[in-house]
Amino acid sequence: MYPEELVKPMRDQLIDAGFEALYSAEDVDSALAKQGTTLVMVNSVCGCAAGTARPGTIASIQGDKKPDHLTTVFAGVEKESTAKAREYMIPFPPSSPAVALFKDGKLVHMLERHHIEGRSAQMIAENLSQAYDEFC
Predict the structure, then answer these.
(1) pLDDT tens, 29-71?
(2) Which of 48, 44, 130, 128 minimizes the C-alpha distance to 85?
(3) The pLDDT of residue 17 is above 90
(4) What pLDDT does residue 97 have?
(5) Is the pTM of this model over 0.70?
(6) Is the dihedral of CA 113, 95, 42, 86 positive or negative?
(7) What is the C-alpha separation between 32 and 50, in angstroms, rounded?
(8) Which residues contact 66 (CB under 8 A, 6 or more apart)?
(9) Rounded to 10 degrees, what is the CA torsion of 46, 75, 126, 36?
């Protein structure tokens, strides 16, 4: 577990952009039971989360088309909610950072860590925006 003072600014970056932090398995179940589209950002303390995943995900929601609900879990910190979110992401293996788009509770688009590493924030934003155009 990482100390709260270390992860708070990383979590707050998403919360300040309109994301709801999910802290329990029940929070995840409730979020993914909602009708419409729900984005789940699996946050992380790694450099690719800070450099591209969070900025790219935040940039992706600036357009006209975006998910109805924005949520985040924090890998290595919020173990219960992260484990539950990853159950919904099967068949994809656990990955952090990661970004998943759900429509009416069903996974429709997934960015795993290997889709994030080595990519710019703009590339991540464009990938997610294309998914929003299709599913939102």
Answers:
(1) 999 999 999 999 999 998 889 899 999 999 999 999 999 999 9
(2) 44
(3) yes
(4) 96
(5) yes
(6) positive
(7) 25
(8) 60, 132, 136
(9) -170
Residue reference for tokens 């992706």: 60
Distance CA 87, CA 123 (A): 27
Q: Which residues are catalytic?
A: 46, 48
Q: pLDDT class for 16, splitting at 50, 70, 90?
A: very high
The rounded distance, in Å, linking the Cα atoms of 49 and 33 is 26
Half-sphere exposure (Cβ direction) of 57: Cα atoms closer than 13 Å: 33
Question: How long is the chain?
Answer: 136
How far is the C-alpha of 7 from the C-alpha of 44, rounded, in Å?
Answer: 9
**What is the phi/psi pair of residue 110, to 5°?**
-140, 130
